[in-house]
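Incident review: delayed structure delivery

Summary: a single-chain prediction request sat in the queue longer than the usual turnaround. Root cause was a stuck worker, restarted by the on-call engineer. No data loss occurred. The affected request and its eventual output are reproduced below so the record is complete for anyone auditing the incident later.

Affected input:
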Amino acid sequence: MDNRIIKFFSGELNDSERAELLKDINENELLKQEFIRMQNLFSLTHLAKHKGDEEIASSSFRQFMGEIRAKSLNKFIRNFAKVAAVALTVVASTVFITLNFAKNDAGITNTLYVPAGQRAQLTLQDGTVVWLNAQSKLTYPARFSGKERKVSLEGEAFFEVAKNKRNPFIVETQHIKLKVLGTQFNVYNYPKSDISQVALIEGSVKICSDKLNVILKPNEEFTLKDGKATVSEISNANHFLWKDGIYCFENEKLLDIIDKLQLYYDVTIKVKDPEIFNVPYTGKFRQRDGIDEILRIIRKIHHFNIKKDVENNIITLSK
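Output delivered after worker restart:
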């Protein structure tokens, strides 16, 4: 690994060295991939939930950089899953990332992936704030350039878009494309889900998909399921509490809740007797409680059996 990348993230490069590295990154695809890998590791390790956690976050990052220097990158990455999991558990369940890049960084594309059971808050170069839910991935440029500010999303995210009338903000997902100027909205679009949903809190959002153009008003949500699109009032405003680590379900079918829990916690949940889960449920859960505790609480009201296959990461629910 190019030692300059390590120095870049530890703040040890001067302006000319930084500019030279960025120039080389733009010209060398292998170097660019190394930089992106390092940026992702940095993002997951540099944690701070509240101001009081900043010292812990800094200490965590110093330890992280020390391990990078002491080991080869490949060896470090093999062990990183354990390191990241410990850091995320000890410091917070939310990753807070603020990125400040020079103009030369416009050619760099970053990808941030949030593991199961975690969430992240990211401030983009233009001031837009993005919250990412568990099992979600955001791809974004280090610096926006051109007429559009474009990002792509897999999973769920809440956006507070910085206003810029001349440069609209574009969110691309697997099934839909959103165009906004400055607004707050939530996007739900997991690749494994058959539902795509956009809920608008304030501002205006234009949604485009195959032969479809919809403009949402505040307090409206757009749903695309099995090729059928609908627009209605937001059914559950408390759903957005996931940003604060709370999963809130309001009069929602248990089968649909189970589908979401599979995505949030990266586990396969098999339902042997679906008829007993085709009922509405209302409840709130803390993200950090985990899948086992959430199912245990639901079972108190809707009685069912739980069987776990830890080796294959499968939970079976039955009468």
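Verification: The domain at 246-318 is CATH 3.55.50.30 (Phage tail protein beta-alpha-beta fold).
Action items: add queue-age alerting; document worker restart procedure.
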